[in-house]
Amino acid sequence: MIFLNTFLYYTLFSSIILFYGIGLSKTVEIGITKFSSLIFYIKVIISILSTTLLTWVVTQFILVPLNLVELFPLIAILFFICINIFVDSLIRLTAGMTGPEYIISLFIILISIYESSTILNTLVICLSSFTSFLIMIPIAIIFKKRVCTNGQKLDEKYYSLFFFFLAILMIVISVFDYNWLQKGVIK
Predict the structure, then answer these.
(1) Closest alpha carbon to 6 in 120, 110, 108
(2) How far is CA 183 from CA 84, 133, 172, 178, 187, in A?
(3) Confidence (pTM)
(4) Cα–Cα distance between 163 and 121 in angstroms, integer?
(5) 160-174: per-residue pLDDT in tens?
(6) Cα 14 to chain center, whole Å?
(7) How many separate helices (H) and strands (E) can be counted in the chain?
């Protein structure tokens, strides 16, 4: 039950894109062709999960006993580069396409390791952060198609409307946060 609460918290109430700002610029400039490919999602999830697992194991069993926990972002970056290059080359050889995406994946890895205590909790946070990104992509694509119905190019008006929409979405999500509904708060 605690993992379900963690998953829902990092997916909806503490959305990695909205409240942390990770990938917000990428979702604004989303290209429909890049994000419609299933290979892109498989590549990202494989690189995120494997890097998160390896970094957590190295952090817990090597860096913590040596009191060098501050180095875990460097270890995560090194593992991420190696794994991402390997997975990207496999996809390039088998499918003949590339889809490099680094910044969102790396920040999801760092947040999932930084805010977890067990390996299972790390994986749940990692998957929920990726799910939050997956939920935001269709919303951005629908908003883009709705605003640009007459075939015009995206201009400053679109970006300001999209950020206004995201601000309203953040306020709505924050209203449904259950902390202010406790009985002791309103006295």
Answers:
(1) 120
(2) 48, 33, 21, 11, 8
(3) 0.77
(4) 31
(5) 777 787 778 777 777
(6) 11
(7) 8, 0
